[in-house]
Amino acid sequence: MGWVCVFRGTGLVDAYLARDWLEASGLTVQVRGDLTTIRGEIPIAESWPTVWVSKREEAAANEALRLMRGPRLVRGPWTCPACGEEGDPDLDACWQCDTPRPAEEPG
Ligand SMILES: [Zn+2]
To answer: Ligand 1 center to residue 69 CA distance, Å?
Structure first.
């Protein structure tokens, strides 16, 4: 059975939060790259833990992670303040003029 990486932590805490969240969602989860087992063998910057699920649970895991991250990653289209182009919801800067996306409006 294949495994896919669905989450790359920037520290131990968020990887384990992701693991706990996914397990609470009924998924089978592996954490790889745990600092407590590999400490000293590879550089810290390359050793943040990653969270893996089986291939057939990938979609469910991604959906669960989207919910875990909350509304800040569920963003709508936006309009570039510099050139007026409509930005892609997934981009943090204008595709046309590279102006950074403005902060979210409240509400
Ligand atoms: Zn622009």
So the answer is: 27
